[in-house]
Amino acid sequence: MSKSLFDKIWESHTVKILENGVDVLYIDRHYIHEVTSPQAFLELEKRGFSVFRPKQIIATVDHNVPTINQHLPISDPLSKKQIDCLIKNCKKFGITLYGLGHQNHGIVHVIGPELGLTLPGMTIVCGDSHTSTHGAFGSISFGIGTSQVSMVMASQCLLLSKPKQMEIQLEGNLKKGVTPKDVILYIISKLGVDVGIGHFIEYTGSMIKNMSMEGRMTICNMSIEMGAKGGLIAPDKITFDYIKKCKYLKNEKEYHKNMEYWETLKTDKNTVFDKKYFLHAEDIEPMISYGTTPGMSMKISDQIPKSLSDDDKRSLNYMGFYPGESLIGKIISYIFIGSCTNSRIEDLRLVASIVKGKKKANHVVRVMVVPGSQKVIQQAKKEGLDKILIDAGFEFRQPGCSSCLGMNEDKIPMGEYCVSTSNRNFEGRQGPGVRTLLVSPLTASIIAIEGKIVDVKKYL
Predict the structure, then answer these.
(1) Is CATH 3.30.499.10 the classification given to domain 5-275?
(2) What are phi and psi of 371, to 5 degrees?
(3) CATH class for domain 287-459?
(4) Each residue of 416-437: pLDDT tens digit?
(5) Mean pLDDT of all residues in the chain?
(6) Residue extents of the structural domains in the chain
(7) How far apart are CA 382 and CA 360, in angstroms?
(8) Which of 54, 68, 115, 323 could make an SS bond with 94 (beta carbons 3.0 to 4.6 A apart)?
(9) Residues 338, 146: Cα–Cα separation, whole Å
């Protein structure tokens, strides 16, 4: 019987099949951070449990941390309390923590892959919805709730019903100026924010095969924005070459032993998915969101659709736009380049290549560039990218989720528009009353220089 990549990983991690379609699924890697872990640790203590396998848990601080002066004491009381709590719990239970100032510190979904902790064939969870990022390596990776975080800590397992499966096949070569972020915004705008409900998505096709690991992570990262449980991509030579450069692979012999297994991780021919969609590269152009979901996105040169649902009309009202309007020429004062979607070294290289020798528009108040990890910062400095960005008038900050979400100090002023490389744009996501427009790092860079929304194709 033909099996999908998802089937093979799920079945190899099923400890026991229970009644009513519920499986006991073993979890290989558990990532935790300062926001969703305190309640889980409290639950353990309340029940008198210990952490079952602490060495399979990796902790970092990212959601509610400052992205400047990380060497100084934290001034925000909530942030300090959350971080102190995580430090105490990790020390108590013997969990590895990459805190502020550590050479491996960064956003949880950035450091896992770059440290070689995310590997093909794994099951990976975290108390964060964008855990689907790790699916780019051919792993079953998904976000979990706080009660599930404590369950994994106590047992290294989860009780789950196996989701349905969807294939999205992407064929062809991308046009100049079209990035993986544009691809995933295009997919969501075409298929809708609820198409993936109850499903796990496998991305296939020549477009994916030609994409870098950073690009694949961007695609899988936003699978959740379609309502899916997660997304994954079969590992191949691009995957294996990326992993080989990572820190924690112990030796060449271990690498080749793993390779024998990793090369089996692919969907069999004639496998039937519950849903399947075909999309073509030539149809995709630089994208921008105009509403309060990633599904409300369009080609940057297009006009906002005239025919909209009542919910979409309310969304437009919040954004200050109207049906049939073009966004070209809209003045922008705030730009954010970062998040677990677009804060890797490849993203920073792209931004630097656009802004080298240029300056941000005079009226642009702030362009925040927030690398995803200390390793990204180190590499950026080695290549001189930090100097290029600073010379352009951009702020080159320290790792953290930053302005992706209005939880930390990096909020955008109320009522302002922010062109952002993050993954969500619901009301107040980047601060009360803030109006977020999702774009790629390339598009964000050009808008920062121009100070307004422009047709990126013409600029290139």
Answers:
(1) yes
(2) -60, 155
(3) alpha beta
(4) 999 999 999 999 999 999 999 9
(5) 96
(6) 5-275, 287-459
(7) 23
(8) 54
(9) 26
